[in-house]
Design brief:
32% of the residues lie in helices and 24% in strands. The chain has 636 residues and is α/β, with parallel strands linked by helices. The protein has 2 domains: 10-487, Rossmann fold (3-Layer(aba) Sandwich); 504-635, ANL, C-terminal domain (GMP Synthetase, Chain A, domain 3), CATH 3.30.300.30. Helix 1 packs across helix 2 (23-31), helix 4 (94-110) crosses helix 5 and helix 12 (340-348) crosses helix 14. It is globular and about 75 Å long. The two termini are 39 Å apart. The structure holds adenosine-5'-monophosphate-propyl ester. Adenosine-5'-monophosphate-propyl ester (PRX) binds at residues 246, 292-293, 368-371, 393-398, 421, 482-484, 496, 499, 505, 510.
Length: 636
């Protein structure tokens, strides 16, 4: 089913070429589509590797997302259809959202939050999360959301990196019919976060919780004193809108900083191009707002457009395997954006659950976060989209702020190919290069780079300009290094092949091997550990750990359990390994670097390849022995 010719490619390429020929004025035209308090003086100031867009312009994200709709019929439009796994619902109009944002912004001011302050949000998928983001932005503060599946230690690390004084959270999350005790997790995290002075708590259950006098405040009680209107703070275009932590190749997560002006312009433009959103759209993105997909394409982009969004709290397969299809039918969802991992899970269970529902409202289907296998793409196309809906496979990253390489039905472009993210979006100068930074020939694997800045580009890493330069701008001179492998085919289509660095994509979530390793070696009985990703039929990649125990310890069941426990405590359940192997030695280079390539080959039963850089000749034999050992374990 190659080349589904939905639209002529010519018009797309014309638009693309027009954009790339004069980037700055192209983006300035796009910038005119969102509301500014003051027009910018300069489209782009590029002091490599730092880009500032629409410099001198002033705006406010919450104004652009809600106030702007108060002047049109959209004030009565539904902004959010919220639903949880038990079918509890909330419908929030743009006017109601406006009111709630204003009131909570007033409450935040009352507890002393000011322009430039960082506020940490650790919240489940409830409307108060959206309200908190917009209220924070309204007063010029900066939100740093921590995914509510992260453990207390991961939360504490991120809070300490920001030095935040205020944390907004809830008593419980709800997943698979169980209460997730967020407040307990927070109380444990806050033992090691000296900067937090106030905790604002959304109370959503009747359960008793611990309240710390003077520190913990109830969201609904704060609102009783709040004003109905809070003046939106006018901020300069480069004022940070948020910080979002993501995994890198060291144990310490990177605080990605996004601007206000450039980021919003980029979100506005890409959302229209890729999803062809209109006032009739009912849009559902299944991501969690704790990740960048949720920031950009559940909250900012849809609200800028005055779109109606569906927001769902719960697991995809609970209480039934047709929970998602039920929601699509119920709300008449027209645009659906999800992950390959979820699709692979549904595919495994067959079409029976899908056939129970009328999915004919769907018009466009999207995927993100990891490569989608062509078979899964075909399945999605046929069984969810009824062979009617284009699939937009969107490649992007936390750092890019928005989609970068993707089909763009909103521009009327590009025949699709199952498994390819197709072409770069307008204004995006992407290339695949070899180790020396030269473009590779068609069909050859190389590194994906972006050659020119774009408005959604990160402004840097929070208080770490040195690491920012090192990670993204050192491998290849003058271009942004994505950390991904890709191939370009004879038609210029991009095929993404996974990470080229030591980070993993487990169920689409980015996890650093070094983060998991440090959680493993934190156990007193562990001498060394190495983590690799192995292909997984559902999650795309799964975590496998090789570990050496200290003398006197044996690999008994409780040792394994302790390791798993410590990973859950330090990172969260999302980093739970599929397998732990106990070994005597790890393959290392002469400079002591663990050769993950060899460990990966061992787990996959493929040839080990070149071992000339190994630490010593003796270990080659040991590796072969390890290979056999692992294989007998796998067979067993
Ligand atoms: O490896 C690429 C993969 O996800 C990485 C970015 O992860 P994160 O910052 O968590 O953002 C995920 C959501 C935007 C990329 O470097 N990735 C993302 N989208 C795709 C993808 N790989 C293949 N195809 C995609 N569509």
């Amino acid at each position: 089913m190659e080349n589904k010719k939905f639209y002529p490619i010519k018009r797309y390429l014309e638009f693309y070429n027009h954009a790339i020929s004069d980037l700055e004025s192209f983006w300035e035209k796009e910038a005119e589509k969102i509301p500014w308090f003051k027009r910018w003086e300069k489209g782009l100031v590029w002091e490599e590797p730092f880009a500032r867009w629409f410099v001198g312009g002033a705006l406010n994200a919450s104004y652009a997302c809600v106030d702007v709709h108060m002047h049109s019929w959209r004030k009565n439009k539904v902004a959010i259809y919220w639903e949880d796994e038990n079918g509890n619902t909330k419908t929030i109009s743009y006017t109601q959202l406006y009111r709630e944002v204003n009131r909570f912004a007033s409450a935040l001011k009352d507890i002393g939050v000011k322009k430039g302050d960082i506020v940490v949000l650790y919240l489940p998928m409830i409307p108060e999360l959206v309200i908190s983001m917009l209220a924070t932005a309204r007063i010029g503060a900066i939100h740093a959301i921590v995914f509510s599946g992260f453990s207390s230690e991961a939360l504490a690390d991120r809070i300490n990196d920001t030095g935040a004084k205020v944390l907004i959270t809830a008593d419980f999350g709800i997943r698979r019919g169980k209460f997730v005790p967020l407040k307990e997790i927070i109380d444990s995290a806050l033992k090691s976060t000296p900067t937090i002075e106030k905790v604002v708590l959304v109370k959503r259950t009747q359960e008793e919780i611990n309240m710390e006098e003077g520190r913990d405040l109830l969201y609904h009680e704060l609102l009783t004193q709040a004003e109905n209107y809070t003046e939106p703070e006018s901020v300069e275009s480069s004022h940070p809108l948020y910080i979002l932590y993501t995994s890198g190749t060291t144990g310490k997560p990177k605080g990605i900083v996004h601007s206000t002006g450039g980021y919003l312009v980029y979100n506005y433009a890409t959302y229209k191009w890729v999803f062809d959103v209109s006032d009739e759209s009912i849009y559902w993105c299944t991501a969690d707002i704790g990740w960048v997909t949720g920031h950009s394409y559940i909250v900012y982009a849809p609200l800028l457009h005055g779109a109606t969004i569906v927001m769902y709290e719960g697991a995809p397969d609970y209480p039934h395997l047709d929970r998602w299809w039920e929601i699509i039918e119920k709300y008449g969802v027209t645009i659906f954006y999800t992950s390959p991992t979820a699709l692979r899970m549904f595919m495994r269970h067959g079409e029976e659950w899908i056939k129970r529902h009328d999915l004919s409202s769907l018009k466009i289907l999207g995927t993100v976060g990891e490569p989608i296998n062509p078979e899964v793409w075909e399945w999605y196309y046929r069984h969810i989209g009824g062979e009617r809906c284009p699939i937009v496979d969107t490649w992007w990253q936390t750092e890019t702020g928005g989609m970068m390489i993707s089909p763009a039905p909103g521009l009327g472009p590009v025949p699709l190919k199952a498994g390819s993210t197709t072409l770069p979006l307008p204004g995006i100068d992407a290339e695949v290069v070899d180790d020396s930074g030269n473009p590779v020939a068609t069909g050859i694997k190389g590194y994906l780079v972006i050659k020119r800045p774009w408005p959604g580009m990160l402004m840097g890493l929070y208080h770490d300009p040195v690491r920012y330069k090192e990670v993204y701008w050192t491998k290849f001179k003058g271009v942004y290094y994505t950390g991904d492998y890709a191939i370009k085919d004879e038609e210029g289509y991009f095929w993404l092949l996974g990470r080229a660095d030591e980070t993993l994509k487990v169920a689409g979530h980015r996890i650093g091997t070094a983060e998991v390793e440090s959680a493993v070696v934190a156990n007193a009985f562990v001498a060394e550990a190495a983590v690799v990703g192995v292909p997984d039929p559902i999650k795309g990649e799964a975590i496998v750990i090789f570990t050496i125990l200290k003398d006197g310890y044996k690999p008994e069941a409780d040792v394994k359990e302790n390791i798993i426990d410590s990973i859950r405590k330090q990172i969260g359940a999302l980093a739970t390994p599929r397998e732990i192997y106990f070994v005597e030695k790890l393959p290392k280079t002469r400079s002591g670097k663990i050769m993950r390539r060899i460990l990966k080959a061992i787990t996959q039963g493929v040839p080990i390849g070149d071992v000339t850089t190994l630490e010593d000749e003796a270990s080659v034999d040991e590796i072969k022995q390890l290979y056999d050992e692992v294989h007998s374990m796998l067979k067993g």
